[in-house]
Amino acid sequence: MKCPMPHIRAVVVHLENLIKTKESYKNMEKKEFLVQNLTEGKNYQQISDENSVSRPQLTKWWNEGLRIRKEIKRANQLFNARKGNIDFEKFEKLGKRAFYEWYEQQPKRCTYCGIEEEKLQKIFNVENGILHTKRNRGRVLELERKNAKNNEYSPENCAMSCYLCNNHKSDLISEKDHLKYFAKEIYKYLDDKYNELENQK
Question: Which fold has domain 106-199?
Fold first, then answer.
């Protein structure tokens, strides 16, 4: 039977399309879009076609996703810096996306002394920080091998550490000994520097 009111049918079709679009947006959320774009190299058109998400929506997610983009960018920097190194083979086989997913799960504080990355960014700030290194390190957590003697970068052997712990521990001092003898003092030093900086305000 034909619909006596064609305009009602058009409204129904429009509503059905809106529901489908909403479901597509649920399936392709902001973070997933950014991960596909920045770790898998998919462009807007590919992602739009594969997920039925409009280009304007992707642009909106890009603009809203500054924090996520920064996190992915840092993971990509760590990955690209070691790509091609035989010691990084396990991570490289997993791929850039899997490396980001591993990185995302790591606490944003040093695995040894416990200093928060947020504090490091202020302590080592180039313009108004209180500590500076020749190679401008210190502001972000670094990829650290728990057991440096086997040289392997892998999910099991890696963690994120501050510059001081990473530099101090090297391959001479074991993870256990570093935690026992040095980590607490490094935290105290960095936290004191942070408080000193805050008190200057």
Answer: Herpes Virus-1 (3.30.40)
Spell out the domain ranges in the chain. 6-64, 106-199
* Contact criterion met (CB below 8 Å) for 125 and 197: no
Residue found under tokens 């850039």:
96
- Name the helix (H) or strand (E) containing 20: helix 6-27
What Cα–Cα distance (Å) separates residue 156 from each residue in 90, 91, 144, 159, 166?
Answer: 10, 10, 11, 8, 17
Summarize pLDDT for 149-176 with one digit per residue, the tens: 888 999 999 999 999 999 988 778 888 9
Instruction: Indicate the pTM of the whole model.
Output: 0.82
| CA dihedral sign of residues 166, 168, 171, 174 | negative
Residue 158's closest CA among 109, 108, 88?
A: 88
The string of DSSP letters for 45-88 reads HHHHHHHT--HHHHHHHHHH-HHHHHHHHHHHHHHHHHTT-GGG
